[in-house]
Design brief:
The protein is an alpha+beta fold and 299 residues long. It has six helices and 15 strands. The protein has a five-stranded antiparallel sheet, with helices on one face. A four-stranded antiparallel sheet has the order 3-6-1-15.
Length: 299
């Protein structure tokens, strides 16, 4: 499936901003299952300097500097991406989860796909006894790792309410766990905390998911949103596999990957420092459309 993706981020500042230093993670990754056909970022006001780098996880990052005084910052990213994911392997024949945990702990690799990066507590996701105990219910002794992970994926979807008002971007996994609600970021953080508590490597993925409107209704431009899900390392043969606890599904062709990290802090779309005073307002609009739909003539 080929998609056109457009993401507009707009900051409005109460007082003029004298200087701005930002890191952007808005450009999709190219992987074995996802090819970036084209991509670009437009920023207003125009940066004094901007350069692209690849971080330790293989994410495309843009670092920019704006020295022009401004009261509004607009970042427009666009991409055309071809997604063709393989279906997950048979869950029942996957490796026992205890063996996966042992193999991960014995790994000596520091390559971008190493399980070591997903094993330990990170900046936003610690290991919590209550969340580990919750996850353990899906992982009886010798259970196939993927079967157990699918069960945890399903339980989080069933036990937690998707509620935009329940949490904020700074909400911790334990706070969301106690609230039994939140958004995709919270669902992913809770699942990662539970898996790491069992000794299983888990990573945070940011990206987009195509939304399909009800039959007979058109898509709404800008109605799609940034999304987050989980990758679980399932052993040396299977590698990293994607699970979406917000929707209780495995990651498929409707998911478009932007960045991978240990938690949200590693993949934040925009982060940086400004020199200013006063408050700011943020508006974000995302549009994900299949190419045949995006290029269809208007009625």
């Amino acid at each position: 499936m080929i998609y056109n993706v457009r993401h507009v981020t707009r900051y409005r500042y109460e007082a003029p901003v004298a200087a701005n230093r930002c890191t952007l993670r808005l450009l999709p990754r190219s992987t074995e299952e996802q090819e970036v056909l084209s991509s670009g970022v437009e920023v207003k006001p125009r940066p004094s300097a901007i350069d692209e780098r690849t971080d330790v996880f293989g994410n495309r990052t843009l670092r920019m500097r704006i020295d022009t005084a401004h009261r509004e910052l607009v970042i427009r990213s666009s991409a055309r991406v071809d997604v063709a994911r393989k279906p997950p392997p048979p869950a029942a024949s996957s490796t026992a989860w205890e063996r996966v945990a042992r193999d991960a702990a014995a790994s000596m690799s520091l390559a971008p796909d190493s399980p070591a990066y997903g094993l330990y507590a990170s900046r936003l996701v610690g290991v919590h006894e209550a969340i580990t105990d919750y996850a353990r219910l899906s992982f009886p002794a010798s259970a196939p790792v993927l079967s157990a992970a699918f069960d945890l994926n399903r339980r989080i979807n069933a036990d937690f309410v998707y509620d935009r008002k329940a949490t904020a971007v700074s909400t911790t996994p334990m706070e969301a766990f106690a609230e039994r609600g939140g958004v995709c970021q919270d669902f992913a953080h809770i699942m990662i905390a539970g898996l790491r508590g069992l000794g299983l490597p888990a990573r945070y993925v940011s990206g987009y998911i195509r939304t399909i409107p009800p039959p007979g209704r058109p898509r709404l431009t800008g109605a799609d949103a940034s999304h987050a899900w989980v990758q679980l390392w399932c052993g040396r043969g299977a590698g990293w596999l994607g699970l979406d606890p917000t929707n209780a599904i495995s990651v498929g062709d409707d998911h478009i990957e932007i960045a991978i990290g240990r938690d949200y802090a590693d993949v934040a779309p925009v982060e940086g420092v400004i020199v200013s005073s006063g408050r700011q307002k943020l508006d974000v609009s995302v549009d994900v459309a299949p190419v045949e739909e995006a290029e269809a003539p208007s009625p």
